[in-house]
């Protein structure tokens, strides 16, 4: 195991050295021990798993709801011919500094007793910046808007968490120098903050649609938190009935139904490919998990993933990030053209369910298998995953003599490097090189653990029962540690699966969060099945 770990250290450090050299323009401030090339390869200090997770999760609702504090800013675009929506309770058409939704369900929630839905189409590609995490949620205290604060002010501004009018004004002011059209964020669903509605868009329709009913017990300020720009003046209490058309029969949709469908529309983008109407430029992904950011590496020490924030970023590291942002929005050219999102998804698709199955086999021998059969099945599963990399030249030639444990090294290296060894370093941007190192770090960890299991199980047919039991315990520990380190969101799910009138849910702002949380307050992210039809009993509106 130590030899294999040393191999991983050498490979990842070598790959990182290349990336560090090419990023020197951004890393002049970095201390030697903050560079990935000089970090030891272990789960306490390597950020490869975090960068990989972030890249793989961009524009996906589920992972960015699970971990609300974003750590990525990237260039993005909405292509020509894309339909976007704006809903409100009056007929004042938005002109500038306002919000569009990618789904109409997200727009109509902003209606009151009247409902006006404006539909727009993009006439050219919109130049955008995207903030990952639940970057539009108004959760205080939290780090949901830390990346935006760093971009605008160079530091975190908790006092601005709910000043959405001021935030969009400052973001658009910052974006003018790069000719940005707006910014993409996520709350219950995805939104686009638009700086100028006359640039790159045309109005398709302006419709007064049937409004929804108001709830008598509606909390006075609850919907105000939904409004990204100042809402229409609140109506007197009790709220007026919706202005239904004269020929309307029966009841209107309830507010709770409208609210649920915002949540439901967000689930359409839960997993890969996520929100497809927004396109990520993977050559311009700026990560706050960059190991050059030594102040943040120190701030993460001893904290859980949910607690990672940017409020302790140093002035030097903040400047470094802002220099990268200036570079990605002014740089010409398209980088390598490699779709790093697809590469990370291929890896998740190939190993995700198989690692979960292997974990199940190790945890639940049950009555189906005795120890020998369980070891044989684990061996079989490891071989399944390593088959494309099982080089004939690596197999020990002597079937009976002692075996050099290093025989597995070429198999592990082949397994870990297949997706990146060919990547032309001269064509990669500094941001791509960081992603490449992260992919290699993740693959070396996966392939290394599988290689270790295969090496142990290679001739396990001649091993005694006590030794086999010890191997099973070791393998179970190794797989659990690997999966904890990877922390892929596909493993967070409702079990058993939900029924046809349910959806799988984790707390999604504003549900499941208090208006003003206590510092360090935990939110239970255990997935649960909730009603997808009336009475929506889980949606008790916004109790503090």
From TrEMBL:
Residues 1-20 form the signal peptide. Keywords: Signal. This is Uncharacterized protein. Coiled coil: none annotated. Residues 213-222 have a biased composition (Basic and acidic residues). It comes from Thelephora terrestris. Residues 213-250 are annotated as: Disordered. Residues 228-245 have a biased composition (Pro residues).
């Amino acid at each position: 195991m130590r030899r294999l770990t040393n191999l991983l250290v050498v490979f990842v450090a070598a790959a990182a050295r290349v990336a560090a050299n090419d990023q020197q323009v951004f890393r002049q401030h970095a201390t030697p021990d903050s560079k990935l090339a000089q970090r030891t390869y272990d789960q306490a200090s390597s950020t490869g798993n975090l960068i990989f997770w972030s890249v793989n999760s961009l524009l996906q609702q589920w992972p960015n709801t699970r971990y609300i504090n974003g750590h990525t800013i990237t260039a993005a675009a909405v292509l020509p011919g894309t339909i976007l929506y704006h809903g409100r309770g009056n007929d004042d058409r938005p002109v500038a500094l306002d919000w569009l939704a990618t789904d109409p369900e997200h727009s109509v929630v902003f209606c009151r007793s009247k409902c006006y839905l404006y539909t727009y189409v993009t006439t050219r590609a919109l130049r955008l910046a995207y903030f990952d995490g639940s970057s539009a949620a108004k959760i205080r205290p939290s780090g949901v808007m830390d990346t935006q604060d760093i971009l605008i002010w160079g530091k975190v501004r908790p006092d601005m968490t709910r000043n959405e009018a001021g935030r969009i004004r400052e973001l658009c002011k910052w974006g003018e120098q790069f000719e940005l059209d707006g910014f993409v964020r996520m709350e219950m669903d995805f939104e686009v903050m638009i700086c100028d509605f006359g640039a790159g868009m045309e109005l398709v329709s302006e419709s007064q649609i049937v409004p929804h009913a108001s709830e008598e017990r509606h909390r006075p300020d609850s919907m105000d938190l939904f409004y990204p720009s100042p809402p229409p003046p609140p109506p007197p209490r009790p709220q007026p009935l919706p202005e239904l058309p004269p020929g309307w029969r029966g009841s209107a949709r309830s507010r709770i139904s409208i609210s649920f469908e915002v949540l439901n529309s967000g689930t359409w983008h839960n997993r890969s490919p996520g929100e497809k109407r927004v396109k990520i430029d993977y050559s311009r992904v700026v990560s706050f998990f960059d190991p050059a950011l030594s102040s943040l590496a120190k701030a993460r020490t001893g904290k859980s993933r949910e607690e990672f924030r940017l409020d302790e970023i140093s002035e030097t590291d903040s400047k470094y990030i802002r220099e990268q942002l200036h570079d990605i929005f002014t740089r010409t050219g398209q980088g390598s053209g490699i779709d790093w999102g697809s590469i990370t998804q291929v890896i998740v698709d190939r190993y995700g369910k198989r690692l979960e199955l292997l974990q199940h086999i190790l945890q639940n021998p049950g009555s189906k298998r005795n120890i020998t059969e369980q070891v044989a099945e684990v061996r079989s599963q490891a071989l399944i995953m390593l088959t494309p990399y099982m080089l004939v030249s690596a197999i020990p030639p002597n079937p009976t003599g002692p075996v050099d444990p290093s025989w597995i090294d070429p198999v592990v290296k082949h397994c870990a490097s297949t997706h990146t060894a060919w990547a032309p370093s001269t064509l990669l941007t500094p941001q791509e090189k960081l992603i490449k190192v992260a992919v290699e770090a993740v693959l070396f960890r996966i392939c290394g653990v599988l290689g270790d299991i295969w090496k142990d199980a290679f001739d396990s047919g001649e091993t005694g029962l006590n030794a086999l039991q010890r191997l099973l315990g070791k393998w179970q520990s190794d797989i659990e540690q690997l999966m904890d380190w990877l922390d892929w969101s596909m493993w967070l799910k409702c079990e058993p699966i939900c029924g046809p009138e349910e959806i799988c849910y984790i707390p999604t702002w504003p549900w499941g969060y208090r208006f003003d949380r206590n510092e360090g307050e935990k939110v239970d992210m255990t997935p649960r099945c909730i009603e997808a039809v009336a009475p929506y009993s889980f949606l008790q509106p916004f109790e503090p």
